[in-house]
Amino acid sequence: MSNREQPRNVITLKQALEVAEKHGFALGSFSPRYTPMIAPVLRAAQEANSPLIVQISHKELVRYGITPGEFADEFYGRIRSEGITVPAVLHLDHTKELGTIAEAIDAGFTSVMIDASEHTLENNIRISKEAADYARAKGVSVEAELGMIGTTDFVETDKDEELYTDPLEAERFVRETGVDALAVSCGTAHGVYMVRQPKIDFARLTAIRKLTPVHLVLHGGSGVPAEMMLQAIRLPGGGVSKVNIATDLELSLLQALRREERLTDAECRSLPAEHLEKGRSAVQATVNEKISNFLGSRGRAADYRL
C-alpha cells in the first residue's frame, strides 16, 4: 500500500466483504465519476451508519479526465474534512493495465480490479494472478472477472457482449489466481436497461458459491429491482457481497442539473456553487436509497471492529 497515512476506517476490500458476507448484507461500490461527487457519497454512508466502497474504473478516469492520485486525494481529503468514521474502501474498478493498478496503489487505493475477462481462461488466469501477486505484496485486495458482463453505455467496459460465468471454471480460476473477490456474469449489465429487462440467474450464483470460497461481486447494479438484488445477497451459504452502482448516481446528478450530456471532471468542478449543491443533494439521496432499500447495509458499520 502507499506511504499515505491511512485512517483506521479505510480498509481493504477483503476486510470489508468478510463482514458483509458473514452478516448477510452487501456493500455498495459507488462510482461518483466526478471528484465533487465523492463527498455526497461519503455523507450518505455516514448518515446511514453504513460501510461503503468508493470506486472509479480506468475508462472513467480517462473519460472524465481524472488521475488516480486526484481521485484518491479527494477521497482522503473528504474522509477527514467530513469526519467520516464508517468503514470505507477506495477501489479501482475495471482495469486492464497493470500500470494503472500500480499507480492506484501508490496513490492509496486499498483495492483494485484486474479485468482480463475478454481473454481465454488460461490467459485470464495468468494476467489476474500477476495482478493479485503484485497487489497482495502491497497489502491491497484484488477483484477479478470471469465471464463477460455486458454494457449499454460503454463507460466502464468496451463490449456489449455477455458471457455467463461457468461455475467449474470459477472454481479453477479462484484456486489458481488467489484473488479476493470475483465479479460474475449472471444476467446484469453495465448502464441503463433500455431493451431487455435485468435478471439474475440465482441457480448459477448458487452453483458458483458452492465451488468457490471468495466473495462474489455483481456489476451492473443500477436499474436492478431491489427485491431481486436482495435475493442475490441473501442466498443460502452466502450470496453477493459487493454491488457496483455507477449509472444511477450520474443520472441523478444530470437530472438535478437538467442536463443530458455528461461533463468532464473539470466542468463539474467549475459549476456554480448552487448547481453543485443541487447535484450533490441528488447523489446523496440516491446513495441513501440504495443503502436502505437495495443493499441492506444501513446501520451495519456497527458490525466492524476497526
From TrEMBL:
Pfam family, one: F_bP_aldolase
Gene3D superfamilies, per database record: Aldolase class I
Domain of life: Bacteria
CDD domains: TBP_aldolase_IIB
Cofactor: Zn(2+)
SUPFAM superfamilies the UniProt entry points to: Aldolase (SSF51569)
Protein source organism: Gordoniibacillus kamchatkensis
Cited InterPro entries: Aldolase_TIM (IPR013785), Class_II_FBP_aldolase (IPR050246), FBA_II (IPR000771)
Protein name: Ketose-bisphosphate aldolase
